[in-house]
Here is the input.
Amino acid sequence: MTRDHEGCPPRADPAEDLLRPFTVSPKSSAGDIVERMGDTAFQARNLGVAALIWDAMLRDGTTIFLGLAGAMVPAGMRPLIVYLIETRLVDVIASTGANLYHDVYETLGFEHAQGDPNGDDVRLAHLRVVRFYDVLAPEHEFSIGERFCTEFSLTLDDDRTYTTREYFELLGRAMAPKAKQEGILTAAAKHGVPIYCPAFGDSVHGLAVAEGRLRTGKRVVFDVIEDVLEMTHLSLTAEKTGVVYIGGGTPKNFIQQCGVAGYLFGRQRPGHSYGIQITMDQPQWGGLSGCTFEEAQSWRKISPDAQFITVNVEATVALPLIVSALAERSADAIEARKTPALDWQWDKTAAPTRVSS
Here is the structure.
């Protein structure tokens, strides 16, 4: 059997390929809506297929990597990401530093506000209020959250290096006693979900650590190459791997490359077995955020027989629908799913042998 349109799972019965027009029911649940969207066309169909592929990952012993880009936390998606962690809908996260700082901000009890995307930005600057499209936050509260991160960084050892995974796990633990609500970092630390930040310096987290160094001279040093080796090792030791990309950018590439980087350990894997991408970017500009899974197959980052789909819908629209449908329709798979045994340690005395292409 071959894959259906754009990597969709195959359907055994040709009659199942009939398009079913969407009908409105006043009692429809999220699961009903997403399933019926999947029977239509265009991006509605792709959204329905994404829910099917995520369900397949849950039932197939797959270690699921989440790439988190964009301003998802200030846009209100923090509790949704927490749900993904607590129910183990994802197992490993690579995120922008910005999302992880906004998580600190909200977990400490501060709030983002709705604003006018066409408002007076010069006035906002005068008032020391920052804007993310239609989301607002006061600078003084931002500074309080940043100060928390700075003071945390000064508690770390300066005679060793840290992976970003270690840093955010320790930060999650430090935040737990002061948390006003559960956050991504606190939930991940509690449930053993590793979080990597491949562009740590490009965020308030980087600024916070930098401020600590300037103020005290303490040098908190990150070993980002250890992050690369850990992620690759996690991919190699998993029975199967799947990816969910929210947007693109550095988190996406960081996860993509571990699907082909087995040669670092003298091994070769076929690439990720499942893929979901939710993005508004397009492939013709050549950027990674719009890169198709087919293109990734040319790099051997995605398995030749992988099931994958790209949903060209803004993530704050698509993600709540997909995850709500999974919570309803995949409850049995979520309950039965075994947490993968994640092991980021390897024999560091063994010399790798490069595998030929």
